[in-house]
Design goal:
The protein has 13 helices and ten strands. By secondary structure, the chain is of the alpha/beta class. Helix 4 links the parallel strand 3 and strand 4. Helix 7 crosses helix 10 and helix 9 crosses helix 13. The longest helix is centred in the middle third of the chain and has 20 residues. It starts with a strand and ends with a helix. The relative contact order is 0.12. The model has no long low-confidence stretch (mean pLDDT 90).
Length: 323
């Protein structure tokens, strides 16, 4: 894929002609610089849809019991571990993941993806455009009403939604999540002093709407924390944004909507802001859930999605209030 930068567009480089003159039409195509002015999520989904359109694989016989994971991206924090865990949970229901476009899948898997029985959405914003491309081939989309699988509640709903749509038994997957929740409960009870310090603490959160919504609802209901600022990135899914705003209004926190992170006990957002606010004392715990990570390499899994994501966020909060 040859992508025009704004500079290349200004200069007037003709990349399509370069591709033609070098006989590369069968192996390369070009994207204009128009996508550079779009939100990152929308540009990602649009780019993947154009890649699939260029490959133009022919849909053959449907492979029963197979799915594609849509909306998981290289821009997601620790995306590889998230993909592994979500694949395992789907496997617990007897479902095989054929492809995760945009999250480490090679061209061969992209070609095979058109034979999958279903598409399962992780983050709706990240697959805008791509969902429609697959649906045009007759592949149905499964999307959780709880948003992205962030926090235990939304993860369980994600599993149940997939199970209901595919006619599979979610018992094993839900049991796995339940065991993790039980282990967390025992830990919170054992560290009751820190757990009590969390209750009533404030948090600021900013990011992709389908991530921010379940995260906000989970921190409020699971840890009894209070939102101080809640903002969603450009390109937000309208349904996710509206549901989040409705939740805040219902709980008496309507005034926090649209506010970028402010000094709070916990700040969850892209990595540079989260780390900077923790370093300057604006929060006790700055938790990166967005694209940047200040170059910090994690050894143990710290994704945002799935059980590992819930453990990562809880771990950072507990460590923060302890300091």
């Amino acid at each position: 894929v040859v992508i025009d930068s704004p500079g290349a567009g200004l200069i007037g480089d003709d990349h399509m002609r370069a591709i033609r003159e070098n006989g590369l039409e069968d192996v390369a195509f070009h994207l204009t610089d128009q996508l550079s002015s779009e939100p990152a999520t929308r540009a990602s989904g649009t780019t993947l849809a154009r890649v699939m359109g260029f490959l133009d694989p022919e849909r053959g016989d449907v492979r029963r019991g197979t799915v594609n994971l849509l909306g998981l991206s290289l821009m997601d924090k620790d995306w590889a571990h998230a993909r592994t865990e979500l694949t395992q949970l789907l496997g617990d229901m007897g479902l095989e993941v054929v492809c995760a476009p945009g999250a480490g899948s090679p061209v061969e898997d992209l070609v095979r993806s058109v034979d999958a029985e279903y598409n399962v959405v992780v983050c709706p914003e990240m697959c805008e455009g791509l969902v429609g491309w697959y649906e045009s081939l007759g592949i149905p989309t499964i999307r959780s009403p709880a948003g992205a699988p962030v926090g235990f509640d939304a993860l369980e709903e994600w599993v149940r939604t997939v199970a209901e749509a595919t006619g599979r038994d979610p018992a094993v997957a839900l049991s796995r999540i339940g065991e993790t929740k039980e282990a967390v409960y025992r830990k919170l009870v054992g560290s009751s002093y820190n757990s009590l310090r969390i209750r009533g603490s404030t948090f600021s959160v900013a990011g992709t709407a389908s991530v921010v919504r379940p995260l906000t609802e989970w921190l409020y209901s699971y840890l009894a924390m209070a939102p101080a600022a809640v903002a969603v990135d450009d390109g937000a899914d309208p349904h996710e944004a509206e549901e989040l705003r409705r939740f805040l209004d219902e709980k008496g926190f309507g005034g926090t909507w649209g506010r970028e992170p402010v000094p709070s006990a916990v700040v969850l957002c892209e990595g540079v802001t989260a780390t900077t606010m923790e370093l300057d004392g604006s929060c006790l715990a700055g938790i990166p859930i967005g694209y940047s990570s200040m170059g910090i390499d994690d050894i143990i899994p710290r994704p945002v999605y799935g059980m590992q994501g819930a453990l990562f966020i809880l771990d950072e909060i507990l460590h923060g209030v302890r300091s």
